[in-house]
């Protein structure tokens, strides 16, 4: 089984998403984003939640990221609330949404959007089939691409009035990295 140590990851060059990032903070923008994303058979998926530093306190999901190889849409759920077009996309079994540790994402999103997730692929469930022992995004990515994903924005405020450029790049990279891992492991898309 392939594995990598944190010390090895620290020596790698940092990866960047070089596509276009769109902030989706209105229903109209959500509809347009979903129209675009619906053209793809595979998209990367992730969520962000404002961290809480008190035991037992949980915040709502603030951001849903959906990425193609050239674009990433950052849906500000804390701004637009429930979006019928987004729910339709997340419920579409014909469009694969590739993420990591999806159980945690689903528990947060379903409270807000009330949908049945379909077409999702959890990388943590498939990487062992490819002789990869590690299940964190950062480690899987480092093993496959010899690049490091920075986690410096992970604990930032995802409910801020405006997302910083660093937050946008971090959020886009996480969703895109999931798609990239899937396409590397499953070029023939044999899963689901």
Can I get a quick summary?
38% of the residues lie in helices and 17% in strands. With 192 residues, it is α/β, with parallel strands linked by helices.
Overview of the structural elements:
The structure is a single chain. By secondary structure, this protein is α/β, with parallel strands linked by helices. The protein has one domain: 2-Layer Sandwich (Nucleotidyltransferase, domain 5). The protein is built from eight helices and six strands; from the N terminus they run H-E-H-E-E-E-H-H-E-H-E-H-H-H. The protein has a six-stranded mixed β-sheet with strand order 1-4-3-2-5-6, sandwiched between helices. It is globular, with a radius of gyration of 16 Å. The two termini are 24 Å apart.
Helix content: 25-40%
CATH architecture: 2-Layer Sandwich
Radius of gyration from CA coordinates: 16 Å
Mind summarizing the main beta sheet?
6 strands, mixed
CATH hierarchy, class: Alpha Beta
Q: Which strands sit side by side, in order, in the main sheet?
A: 1-4-3-2-5-6
What is the global morphology? globular
Q: Enter the CATH topology name.
A: Nucleotidyltransferase, domain 5
| Tally of DSSP β-strands | 6
Number of domains: 1
Mean pLDDT: 90
Order of helices and strands: HEHEEEHHEHEHHH
């Amino acid at each position: 089984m392939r594995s990598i140590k944190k010390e090895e990851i620290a020596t790698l060059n940092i990866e960047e998403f070089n596509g276009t990032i769109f902030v989706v903070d209105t229903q109209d923008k959500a509809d347009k984003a979903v129209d675009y994303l619906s053209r793809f058979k595979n998209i990367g998926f992730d969520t962000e939640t404002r961290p809480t530093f008190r035991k037992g306190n949980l915040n709502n999901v603030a951001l849903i990221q959906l990425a193609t190889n050239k674009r990433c849409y950052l849906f500000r759920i804390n701004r637009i609330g429930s979006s019928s077009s987004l729910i339709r996309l997340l419920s579409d079994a014909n469009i694969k949404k590739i993420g990591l540790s999806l159980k945690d994402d689903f528990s947060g999103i379903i409270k807000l959007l009330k949908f049945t997730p379909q077409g999702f692929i959890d990388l943590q469930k498939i990487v062992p089939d490819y002789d990869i022992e590690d299940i964190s995004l950062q480690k899987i990515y480092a093993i496959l691409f010899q690049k490091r994903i920075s986690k410096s924005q992970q604990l930032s405020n995802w409910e801020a009035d405006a997302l910083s450029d660093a937050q946008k790049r971090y959020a886009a990279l996480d969703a895109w990295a999931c798609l990239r891992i899937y396409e590397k492991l499953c070029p023939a898309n044999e899963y689901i």
